[in-house]
Amino acid sequence: MTSNRRSGDTGRGTGVGLAGFGFGGSRAGPRPRVSPWRIIVLAMVVVIGGIYAAPNLFPPDFALQVTVDNSPRTFDNYLLEELAEVLDEGGVPVIAKDRIPEGGLLRVADAEAQLRGSALLRDYLNPPGEERQFVVALNLASTTPEWLKGIGGEPMALGLDLKGGAHFVLQVDMEEALAKRLTDEVEKIKDMLREERVRYRSTANAVQGETIRMGFVTGQLRDRAYAVIEDEFREPDYLLAEADVDGRPGFEITVQEAKIDEIESNAIEQNLTGLRNRINQLGVAEPLVQKLGGSRIVIDLPGVQDAADAKRKINKFANLEFRLEAAADDRPSEIDDWVYEGRPVQLNRRVILTGDRVVHAAQGRDPENGLPQVDIKLDSQGGDMFHDATSPNIGRRMAVIFIEHKPIVTVEEVDGERVERHSSRADKRVISLATIRAALGYTFRITGLTVREAQELAFLLRAGALAAPMYIVEERTVGATLGEENIERGMLAVGAGLVLVLIFMAFYYKVFGLVADVALTLNLVILVAVMSLLGATLTLPGIAGIVLTVGMAVDANVLIFSRIREELKTRPPAQAIQAGYDRAFLTIMDANVTTLFVALILLTIGSGPVAGFAITLSIGIVTSMFTAIFGSRVVVDLIYGGRRVERVLI
To answer: How far apart are CA 130 and CA 302, in angstroms?
Structure first.
């Protein structure tokens, strides 16, 4: 866009006494106009940007976060004081303590004090050999003033390369993964035998280690069963052989080593997917979730805000089972005894469906009584299975069983050293037993839960079922992965480069160079404010994006100022300033838009460091265009506007 239109007052007037800025003289040009709306917009952006960038001036404190898990004791101020005394007596001074929902926050001096304090509180709050009563997590406590938090002001999250964060190592229970898979295979065998009307003995203890053992009343039934399943369970995955089972004819299926490796690998992959989904729902920016060895998973959470909640949900293994109430003609071997609302009930052992088939779960309220419930949606196969199981059983009751694996820590002395052993215990209970009124399909609801159970069950089902329980074997806060010295050098390089650019612009372009410096500083403030508002994570590649943004912002100002210099050869100063901004606009727009397209492509298809670079570059391009074209123009108008201008310092 170009313009040769002459604007402003073309009359003559006396000069004003600001010759140092190029004002005054009897041969002044037209007066440039100062648009009030531009000043108002820029002032609003400066104020809002300054407010939302300010939280980054308040570094967080190291803290221990304690929340209630399975304890009947409520967290109150007395318990908070009690925990502070435990830490003080253990040589970990408490700087400050705060109450938070369902727990407390105890601020300590540094990462070393954090680790020592965490061990003290875990020993004090969680008796060895019992299920966990309280969650003790390492956290970084915000120091942002409450008035800033009240208007949504939060600092930028820093990536693991710059700040570090929470680090967990989880052990996957591979024995449980294998047992679960073999239990599923037993159900598959039973379905195949039912279809062929082959009767079998009880399968209560069919899974034994790496084998499946099933017995029959006669050898003839065993031979028929053998013929039914031999095509499905054959080498190289399984070894099928005849065997005596409790003194009866039967067969034994032994899982081969290659199949065990496949089952364990699938369990790790399924757990990795489930954990990534859980962490994504926690809102943690740029987490790291990866496999470690054959049976462990490493999780790094940069700048996590609620470490206790993250720890509880990461270390939570829960699922659902749907079973029919036992019928009168069910064999005793197919019946389990349960308790529901204090009364004994009998359920069929056959599992109709598990939570693995859930594709969506949301916490809600029963419209009739207002009690918490979970609204469930199944996948297509799960919906078909549910319909096939309930349509012939209308009028019969169906139970929903909630299965939760609770972590247990035991402490042993090995060679004089304290060693923690981690395990889990399955807690199963019937949470619902209702009559089937009609054939159920893809959507239904579950009641009989507390508010917290409904929240966590919906969260876990949305994230996807895990193939096997896990437990945390290591937890600590990690420092910046690049090392403090490298980070300090990188930040020093950025700061030194910025200062040199500011000095050069002020020296080479005089007053307009100072205007460029103001615009450049404003650009950085707005960039930080936008990233803080969006919850973006700043990494070292992100800092590289900021440096590139600074360069592009300076380049835009150089284009404008060079154009103004050219226009001053043939035009009065006021018209030269306007023409310089107008004629440089298209060039700046073309250069920035093409770069923005590349940044958006990187953001779309990239991840990790690439995405971190693309985020800051994308935001920086937009903010630099605003400050270089709009912001600097307003400042120039404030300096030279409303007066007859004879010359400008540029």
So the answer is: 31
Here the tokens at position 124 are 């004090």
In 3-state terms, what secondary structure has residue 357?
Answer: helix
Over residues 251-265, the pLDDT tens digits come to 899 999 888 888 888
Instruction: Give Cα separations from 283 to 286, 311, 514, 621 (angstroms).
Output: 9, 14, 41, 26
**How many CB atoms are located within 10 Å of the residue 456 CB?**
19
| CA atoms of 520 and 177, how far apart (whole Å) | 57
Indicate the angle between helix axes 484-534 and 632-640, nearest 10 degrees: 80
Q: What is the pLDDT of residue 31?
A: 52
Question: What tokens does 347 get?
Answer: 């359920």
Measured distance CA(488)–CA(3) in Å, rounded: 48
| Inter-residue contact 584 to 576 (CB < 8 Å) | no
Supply 496's token pair: 């030194």
Q: Band the pLDDT of 124: cuts 50, 70, 90.
A: confident
Residue 441: the pLDDT is 76
* Cα angle for residues 39, 44, 45 (degrees, 5° grid): 100
Q: Which residues lie closer than 8 Å to 634 by C-beta, 6 or more apart? A: 35, 38, 39, 42
DSSP string, 370-412: --EEEEEEE-HHHHHHHHHHHGGGTTSEEEEEEEEEEEEEEEE
Ramachandran class of 608: left when φ > 0, alpha when ψ lies in -120 to 50, beta otherwise: left
How many H-runs (helices) and E-runs (strands) does the chain carry?
Answer: 15, 23
Which pLDDT band holds residue 404 (cuts at 50, 70, 90)? confident
CA pair distance 330, 346, nearest whole angstrom: 10
State which of 218-232, 286-300, 598-612 shows the largest mean pLDDT: 218-232
Residue 599 phi, psi (nearest 5)? -60, -40
In whole numbers, what is the pLDDT of the chain averaged over residues?
Answer: 79
Distance in angstroms (rounded) separating the CA atoms of residues 415 and 409: 19
- Quote the CA–CA distance of 608 and 537 in Å, as a whole number: 10
Q: Report the alpha-carbon distance of residue 94 to residue 86 in Å, rounded.
A: 10
CB-CB contact of 348 with 334 (8 Å): yes
- Residue 223: phi and psi, rounded to 5, are -65, -40
Contacts of 356 (CB under 8 A, 6+ apart): 319, 382, 465
Answer with the residue of higher pLDDT: 212 or 156: 212
Residue 16 pLDDT greater than 70, yes or no: no
User: What are the tokens at 494?
Assistant: 């950025």
DSSP state of 31: B
The label of the residue with tokens 């990790």 reads 608
In this predicted model, what pLDDT tens digit does every residue of 536-560 receive, in sequence order?
Answer: 777 778 888 888 888 888 888 888 8
Query: Which band of pLDDT confidence, cut at 50, 70 and 90, is reported for residue 186?
Result: confident
Q: What is the pTM of this model?
A: 0.60
Distance, CA of 189 to CA of 207 (rounded, Å): 12
The model's confidence at residue 9, banded by pLDDT at 50, 70 and 90, is very low
The one-letter amino acid at 18: L
* Contact predicate 621/4, CB 8 Å: no
Distance CA 578, CA 560 (A): 10
301 and 284 Cβ atoms separated by less than 8 Å: yes
Please choose, from the candidates 427, 419, 475, the residue with its C-alpha nearest in 3D space to the C-alpha of residue 453: 427
Q: Mean pLDDT, to the nearest integer, of 223-229?
A: 89
- Six token digits for residue 398: 């169906």
